[in-house]
Structures are given as structure tokens and as C-alpha cells.
Design a protein that fits this description.
By secondary structure, the protein is an alpha/beta fold. It has a single domain, classed as Carbamate kinase (3-Layer(aba) Sandwich). It is about 35% helix and about 20% strand. The strands form two sheets. It has a nine-stranded mixed β-sheet with strand order 4-3-5-2-1-6-10-11-9, with helices on both faces. Helix 2 packs parallel to helix 8.
Length: about 240
């Protein structure tokens, strides 16, 4: 590992909404967001171009947790709006750290975010602005994992970094099962064949078809965002 020499020039970082709240009962943890911001700035200072896809699970989980028995499409749109709220919060904190940031939404909401245009996003990245993608793909029935894979392919990212609450891919859920196998490296086919719940199958298939590597790592450990782009041995690589 050489923290002065990143392995990638352009990355797509997928942050879950839950990552913004940490272990707190509130929707946002100031400590967690501050730590994430500090590490994103460190990565940016290494010359890496950064795009982020933000989830909304700290606010609303869309069709995945529909206690109100809403129509699935309506619930998913509510989840997309939650990601926009998270995107506004993350943009504000990142800007206060000295970074130039653009919030780009798949849903048109001109008062707070730019509408998604691939060429405009590429210019932002080339000009060293951090880009935050919100509202998923803009369509119901698709997860933010799939949105992250899609955007990573569109911007020609070198890698799709999925930040999770565990340190890689396991044979089962490490929060529920003991004595598990942790995988350091997997093929796309193995993830699909083993039905590993590290990210949804549509996202894996998209990455497989476009030869986009995925790295899954633990965001709760301090310094891991920087390590994810400088240490090839951290987490689990899917390629």
C-alpha cells in the first residue's frame, strides 16, 4: 500500500443512507459525516476524480420497507426524494471542507440540483469537482446499487467502490451467522451463483457486461476510503 499513489484515476463511491447515521438514532451523525468528508477530501487531494451515489435508507427505504402499504412505484419515488435530501446535506458539508461539489439528480428538481446530463458530469469530473448522484436511476423498481453501477459505467469509472458496514463479501450475513467465509476475491459469476447479498444481481450483471470491477469495503473503519483507493488488498474485489 502506498497512500501517496492511488490505484485509480476516477472512482464511483456508493454510500448508503445508513452510513450517514452510524449507530445514532438520528437521521444524520455529525461525527460520521465529518469523517467521511475528511476522507473524501484526502482522496480528492491525491488527484482522484470522485463521483458518489447516495442512498436514502436513513430516511426512507422505498419499496424495500413499505409499512404504509403504498404502491411500490410511489414508495420508490419517496425513496428517491430521500436520496436528494441526503445529497443536499453531503454537498453542504463537502463544500465547507473546501471542495467544489455538484449535486446531480435523476429527477428534475432545479431548485436544489442539476438534472443529469452525462457530458456535463464528465466536465465536472475533469475539472476536479466532486459529483453527487441522487434519485437513483430516476425510475422505480431499481436499487441505488444498480444506479451506482449504471453511473459508474456511464462516466467510465475505473472501479465501483461499495461502502458497507462490513469488511467485504461473506458466505452469509455476518450480522446473523457465525463462522463464515470471507472472500478476498470473487468473479461476477460466483456472486450470482452463490446468491451473495453483497449487492443486487442487476448491478452485478451490469458490471460484468461492462468489465467494471467492484470493491466492497467497510466504511465504519477510520481511513478506509483512502485505503480503498490505495490498497488492493482491502475488502473484497469482484471482477
Amino acid at each position: 500500500m502506498d497512500e501517496d499513489h492511488p490505484l485509480y484515476k476516477r472512482i464511483l463511491l456508493k454510500l448508503s443512507g445508513e452510513a450517514l447515521k452510524g449507530d445514532e438514532d438520528a437521521c444524520f451523525s455529525k461525527t460520521v459525516i465529518t469523517n467521511i468528508t475528511r476522507e473524501i477530501k484526502q482522496v480528492h487531494d491525491l488527484g482522484v476524480e470522485i463521483a458518489i451515489v447516495i442512498g436514502g435508507g436513513n430516511l426512507f427505504r422505498g419499496g424495500r420497507s413499505n409499512h404504509l402499504e403504498l404502491d411500490r412505484a410511489d414508495a420508490d419515488y419517496m425513496g428517491m426524494l430521500a436520496t436528494i435530501i441526503n445529497g443536499i446535506a453531503l454537498r453542504d458539508v463537502l463544500e465547507k471542507s473546501g471542495l467544489q461539489v455538484r449535486l446531480v439528480s435523476a429527477l428534475e428538481i432545479k431548485a436544489v440540483a442539476e438534472s443529469y446530463m452525462r457530458r456535463a458530469v464528465l466536465r465536472h469530473l475533469e475539472n476536479k469537482r466532486v459529483v453527487i448522484f441522487a434519485a437513483g436511476t430516476g425510475n422505480p423498481f431499481f436499487t441505488t446499487d444498480t444506479a451506482a453501477a449504471l453511473r459508474a459505467i456511464e462516466i467510465k469509472a475505473d472501479i465501483f467502490l461499495k461502502a458497507t458496514m462490513v469488511d467485504g463479501a461473506y458466505s452469509a450475513d455476518p450480522k446473523k451467522v457465525k463462522n463464515l467465509t470471507k472472500f478476498d476475491r470473487l468473479s461476477y459469476w460466483e456472486v450470482l451463483d452463490k446468491k451473495l447479498k453483497v449487492l443486487d444481481s442487476t448491478a452485478v450483471t451490469l458490471c460484468q457486461e461492462n468489465h467494471l470491477p467492484i470493491k466492497i469495503f467497510n466504511i465504519t473503519k477510520k481511513g478506509n476510503i483512502v485505503k480503498a483507493i490505495t490498497d488492493e488488498h482491502i475488502g473484497t474485489i469482484i471482477c
